[in-house]
Each structure stands twice: as structure tokens, then as C-alpha cells.
TrEMBL record:
Pfam families: FGase. InterPro entries: N-FG_amidohydro. This is N-formylglutamate amidohydrolase. SUPFAM superfamilies: Zn-dependent exopeptidases. Keywords: Hydrolase. GO terms for molecular function: hydrolase activity. Gene3D superfamilies: Zn-dependent exopeptidases (3.40.630.40).
């Protein structure tokens, strides 16, 4: 059985490559044209984070896709390739463009050197998270530009280069590649229009993936007895924008899983239900792979 990489790194049966801050599984086996990525489940907090914190340490758990990496167990055990980040999202957000930087957080940074802030950055969740809703600023001091550049060059950029290389290898082997970017979300509040989804599939409204793949995931989730939505309220962010090339048969999807399906009532620790959600993810991957290998080239919407 595949085990928690934080605890037994280097002793898994799967072929794996340990990099600085992330682990790659299944590069050699590559049994399916699907790559799983988990960018936000990291629980490795460099000491500089705690030295710079204004908030209590436990508040940073809110930034984590708590234990979402455990949802890959069954897939990785089947030889499906995966890339799992270990450093905390508070260190740097792998699902943001490296230029999505809040310059007010960085000493001597010039706003003119960066694009206008996007919606996520204005909400405090840029390349390095700045604020938590209800708690305010995370940090008590500014960072040095050299520090931010080091985080990008040693961790953010290599993570994306690894995804790019894996998708290229996959596309060469199978003629198609599908990236599934796995996240977890807090339970969505009850909406007036109906019951909230437990899974959200995102394809950037048809821009990052041919619709038959995203529609297949939604259908399979519903057939498994769960509520699923497409693109609402999460359609996908930087990882999908950067790596999706559907006209070249490289597709990218985001999959959000309600944390209450596999964590305890405090949304802190995993329960025995991790296993069933992990199997569901593996079944979704299998369905995607079967459709990809059995279909002609599918093109995403313009």
C-alpha cells in the first residue's frame, strides 16, 4: 500500500523521484495518460515562515488543502503518475503565476515591474498569501526580493517544469495527456438554488480541456452517489492556464473535493473515509484514461 510520503518518503513501492520540496511518482511506469498534481497539501513549513508570522501558527492550516495528497493513494498504487508538493502554500503558491506578486509585501519591489493585481491577489491570495479572511494580514514584516526570487527559482519554477516534462513524455507515449489538478475545498454553504456540490470539476469554462472529459468526471461522480458541479464556484487557476494545450491534445482539469468527506468534524485530521475517496479518484482517473485512449482527438472550446 502507498503510504503518506511525509512519513515514509523513499520507502514506497512505487518508483518515485524526490526533489527539493516535491515528489514525482510513476515516471517510469506511466500506466495511463493522466497526470495527477497536488500543489496545496504541503505540510512542510520553513522556519522563516514562523519567524515572520503575525497570526498563530495553526491559522495557516486554512491555506492547506488538508491531506489532499492522501487521496492519491489508490491511483499511485495503480501506476498513475503524480506530482505532490510538500512545502506549505504559505511559503509560495504553486497555483499562481510567478509574477502574481503583491509588491507591498516585498521591500523595494516596484509595482511597475509587475502586472496589475488580479482578483485573487486583491483578495490576499497571490503568489505569497498575504491575508486570511477574518484574521487579516498573515505576516508582521516585509520580505526581501532575493528571498522571493529564491522561492521561485528553487521550488515554484522546478515544479512547473516537472509537470511540463511529464506531460510531454505522456503525450509522446499515448498521443494524449490529461492533467488533473487535485484540491480540497471547505464545505460549500447551502445555496438557495439547491444543495451544494461535494465535488467541483473545473475546465476554465471549456478553455483548458475538451468538454467530454470534464462532463465525464461530473457524470461519474454523480453516479457514485455524490453531488458534483462544473466550474462553479471553482473553474481552475494558473496550473490549468499554464499547462493546458488542448489543440495539441494536452488537456487540464481541476478537481475540488469537499474536505468533510474525508476529514474529521474539525477538518483537521483524516478519517477512515480517505480510502473510499481515494478509490473514487482512482476510478475517475481510470474513466478518463479509457476515454482518452479510445477516442479521437478532442478539441476544447475557443
Amino acid at each position: 500500500m502507498w503510504q503518506d510520503t511525509d512519513k515514509v518518503a523513499g520507502r514506497c513501492a512505487m518508483t518515485m523521484t524526490e526533489k527539493d520540496g516535491f515528489t514525482v511518482y510513476g515516471r517510469q511506469q506511466m500506466s495511463a495518460p493522466v497526470l495527477l498534481s497536488v500543489p496545496h497539501a504541503g505540510r512542510d513549513y520553513p522556519e522563516i515562515i514562523f519567524q515572520s508570522l503575525r497570526l498563530p501558527r495553526e491559522s495557516l492550516i486554512r491555506l492547506e488543502d488538508r491531506y489532499a495528497d492522501l487521496l492519491l493513494r489508490a491511483s499511485v498504487g495503480n501506476g498513475v503518475p503524480a506530482i505532490v508538493a510538500h512545502k506549505a502554500r504559505a511559503w509560495i503558491d504553486l497555483n499562481r503565476d510567478e509574477r502574481d506578486l503583491d509588491v507591498e509585501m516585498v521591500r523595494n519591489a516596484k509595482a511597475s515591474d509587475y502586472p496589475a493585481p488580479g482578483l485573487k491577489q486583491r483578495g490576499g491570495l497571490g503568489l505569497v498569501p498575504r491575508r486570511l479572511a477574518g484574521d487579516g494580514d498573515i505576516w508582521k514584516c516585509q520580505f526581501e526580493m532575493d528571498d522571493i526570487n529564491a522561492r521561485i527559482e528553487s521550488y515554484h519554477r522546478p515544479y512547473h517544469e516537472e509537470i511540463e516534462a511529464l506531460l510531454k513524455q505522456m503525450r509522446a507515449k499515448f498521443g494524449v495527456a490529461i492533467l488533473v489538478d487535485l484540491h480540497s475545498m471547505p464545505p460549500i454553504r447551502q445555496a438557495q438554488s439547491g444543495t451544494p456540490p461535494q465535488f467541483v470539476v473545473g475546465d476554465r469554462f471549456g478553455q483548458s480541456c475538451a468538454s467530454p472529459y470534464s462532463e465525464l468526471l461530473v457524470e461519474q461522480i454523480r453516479l457514485s452517489g455524490y453531488r458534483a458541479a462544473l466550474n462553479h464556484p471553482y473553474s481552475g487557476e494558473h496550473i490549468l492556464r499554464r499547462h493546458a494545450r488542448p489543440r495539441s491534445n494536452v488537456h487540464a482539469l481541476q478537481l475540488e473535493v469537499d474536505r468533510s468527506l474525508y476529514l474529521d468534524s474539525h477538518l483537521r485530521e483524516p478519517t477512515h473515509l480517505v480510502g473510499s475517496i481515494s478509490l473514487l479518484v482512482a476510478n475517475l482517473v481510470r474513466s478518463l484514461a479509457n476515454q482518452a485512449l479510445g477516442s479521437a482527438t478532442l478539441i476544447a472550446a475557443e
